[in-house]
Specification:
- By secondary structure, this protein is mostly helical.
- Helix 2 packs antiparallel against helix 3.
- It starts with a helix and ends in an 8-residue tail after the last helix.
């Protein structure tokens, strides 16, 4: 239902905003502004989609999980669709999705909102933090042992008969 409202309410809002802008600057300037807005958005879509793709490939080459890069790439797609849609409201939201600074902030907000749903903590795997085996869900008992070797032990360990107890 909310998506249906979006398709009904958004065009009405766009028409009202375009009408208000037209009242202030006139039809010619309004049309020129809408056209220029779309043109600038198309240039931004081209450059930012290339940057998002390069960041994604770099994350894969570095063997990092590209979650943030995927989110930013999706925002570039959404922003591109909104920018080419005629209207000032969609252009504004689209530009926010396309500009790197606001896109990173939006992606971080989405990540913070989705982390609790996925069962993750503050950006790290909470199963790992709790010491859980992800395959079986059981807690593992782990003991960390620290071994210090001094020079005498090192000399005796090089003995072919082995170290003396």
């Amino acid at each position: 239902m909310p998506i249906l409202l979006l398709f009904v309410v958004l065009p009405i809002v766009e028409l009202v905003v375009i009408g208000e802008v037209q009242d202030v600057i006139g039809w010619g300037w309004t049309l020129l502004l809408l056209f220029g807005d779309g043109l600038i958005g198309a240039v931004l879509v081209h450059s930012q989609s290339r940057r998002a793709w390069d960041n994604f490939r770099t994350a894969l080459a570095d063997r990092r999980w590209p979650g943030d890069e995927v989110a930013q790439g999706a925002l570039v797609l959404v922003g591109g669709a909104l920018v080419v849609t005629p209207g000032f409201v969609t252009d504004t939201v689209g530009l926010l999705c396309l500009l790197p600074i606001s896109r990173r902030a939006i992606a971080a907000g989405i990540r913070r909102r989705l982390m609790p749903i996925q069962g993750f903590g503050s950006g790290t795997d909470s199963r790992r933090e709790r010491g859980r085996d992800s395959r079986r869900g059981e807690t593992l008992g782990v003991e960390v042992v620290s071994v210090e070797v001094d020079d005498e032990d090192r000399d005796s360990s090089s003995d072919p008969d082995g170290p003396t107890p």
